[in-house]
Specification:
single chain, mainly beta, Rieske Iron-sulfur Protein, six-stranded antiparallel beta sheet, three-stranded antiparallel beta sheet, globular, binds FE2/S2 (inorganic) cluster
Length: 141
Amino acid sequence: MSNNQEAAEAETRAPRSARTPVEYPVGRASEFPPGAHKIVQVGTQEVGVFNVNGDFHALINVCPHQYGPVCAGPVGGEMSCNAKTDWKFHWSRDGEILICPWHGLEFDLITGHCLAPKEMRLRKCKVKVVDGEVRVSLGSG
Ligand code: FES
């Protein structure tokens, strides 16, 4: 039985009132170098785990637009042209913007918010590294 299955069973056995968030091991941190991401199974959910410049972020793999597999999309940056950039095109935030593969909505990997419309948001999970192991728990992160 895998560590992930054991964690899922422990979560199911505990009475609801006694439940604390269960941490699911999803791999070694070395498997997620900066800029890399993987979709992993966490209990009953698919979760995208992203290493953004050395910080880990985990998001449920469901797009709030039409439920597409958002974490399977490419990661890029943001083009801006405004007063801050002296009205010149400027590429920024490379590696921080996730693009849904179905219709192209862009999401901030750090906050989960859609770049437009802003009220749309991905669900984040808690993620941490313990002794070199990446652990994800369902619940807001
Ligand atoms: S399902 Fe993600 S943009 Fe439409």
